[in-house]
Design a protein that fits this description.
Radius of gyration: 50 Å
Number of strands: 0
Strand content: under 5%
Helix content: over 70%
Order of helices and strands: HHHHHHHHH
Number of helices: 9
Length: 374
């Protein structure tokens, strides 16, 4: 390679000097030049500025590739006599430049993929927490307790990284919902058990009352029958001549008395059954009213909690938006100041690329005793 070729910069490639550049091995100087510029830096992936620097270097490689490839393609069309040589050289150049670009950006690409995977893992765990209270009304108390235990086992600590505060809020939120649901379910189960117990007791009392009334009626009927029989026997001697008539009349009266007694006993048993049923219905109505009142209070408390959470969420979103707008304004201001500085330097008859490089070095405080006031 001649000394003239080594002195040609990428932006100086023209139709006149193309024959001296686009020859076998002639583009290696530009690969070495760009490689020296990008491989001489070791940006810090742990900072946003460092990651942006990697992306900038990769973009610079692509720009340099295009700056060399385009005039070469133009020159190739003019050189009908040697297309294969130029095409082979360009293919090798483009391949190496693409490889260099990809290798330059590879740390950032790998970091971005790892960052996306890390954030996805945290979001999956957050979604699992948020979904723990789904279908709560259809769960039994034991199932709700199992969910509470599974959420309580989730450890909130440094492993959550920047999601730690959000994970803590979600854990507290879902635990509160699960515990409220458990209390509601246990209260409902207790009310149903108490209602069933009251029904059984009412039915047992009604049955006992019926049996007791029947037994008392039978005893009374037997007592009256015995008394009437004894009275008839005492009067039998005096009324022997009318024994058949008196006996028939006595039997008729006895039968009528028994019918009246049985009717009275039946009416008493019916009144007792009706009263027991009325007592049972009244008890159920009181319990239903208490359950509905409790449900309304819980719904009002839940609605208040949802409104409070929505207000907190809106405030947090507004603060995030304000900070984002402030950062964008700051970046736009810095870009404007640096653009004005670059324009001023270009007025000294230096290239735009060199002017940009000088401004960037000053902005990064790599030039002693020189600063840019933003």
């Amino acid at each position: 390679m001649s000394a003239e070729q080594k002195l040609i910069a990428i932006e100086e490639i023209s139709e006149e000097n193309a024959p001296a550049i686009y020859v076998a091995g002639g583009l290696k100087q530009f690969i070495d030049l760009v490689k020296a510029e990008v491989e001489g830096e070791v940006p810090d992936l742990t900072t946003r500025k460092g990651r942006e620097r990697i992306a900038s270097l990769a973009a610079k490689v692509s720009k340099s590739k295009t700056a060399v490839e385009k005039p070469g393609r133009d020159y190739l069309r003019r050189l009908k006599e040697m297309p294969k040589v130029v095409e082979a050289e360009l293919r090798e150049f483009v391949t190496k430049m693409d490889t260099l670009r990809d290798e330059t950006r590879r740390p950032l690409t790998e970091w971005e993929a790892a960052e996306d995977a890390r954030i996805d893992r945290h979001n999956d765990r957050l979604d699992w927490l948020r979904n723990r209270d789904d279908g709560l009304d259809a769960l039994e108390a034991t199932d709700i307790k199992d969910r509470i235990a599974s959420v309580e086992e989730v450890v909130i600590g440094p492993e959550w990284e920047e999601f730690e505060a959000e994970a803590a809020r979600e854990k507290d939120k879902v635990l509160n919902a699960l515990r409220a649901g458990l209390a509601k379910r246990e209260k409902y189960d207790a009310e149903q058990a108490e209602l069933a117990r009251l029904r059984r007791e009412a039915e047992e009392r009604a049955e006992q009352d019926r049996i007791r009334a029947a037994q008392e009626a039978a005893v009374e009927a037997e007592r009256q029958r015995v008394a009437q029989q004894q009275q008839a026997e005492r009067e039998a001697a005096a009324r022997r001549e009318q024994e058949l008539l008196d006996q028939a009349a006595a039997q008729e009266r006895e039968a009528e008395n028994q019918r009246l007694q049985l009717k009275l006993q039946a009416e008493q048993a019916e009144r007792a059954r009706i009263q027991a049923e009325a007592d049972r219905v009244a008890a159920e109505q009181r319990m239903e009213q208490e359950r509905q009142a409790s449900a309304r209070r819980q719904e009002e408390a839940a609605e208040q909690a949802r409104q409070d959470e929505r207000r907190r969420t809106d405030a947090a979103a507004a603060e995030i938006l304000r900070q984002q707008e402030a950062r964008e304004r700051d970046q736009a201001h810095k870009a404007k100041v640096m653009g004005e500085a670059k324009t001023a330097l270009m007025s000294l008859n230096i290239t735009e690329e060199l002017a940009r490089a000088i401004v960037l070095k000053i902005a990064r405080r790599e030039v002693p005793n020189v600063t840019i006031n933003f």
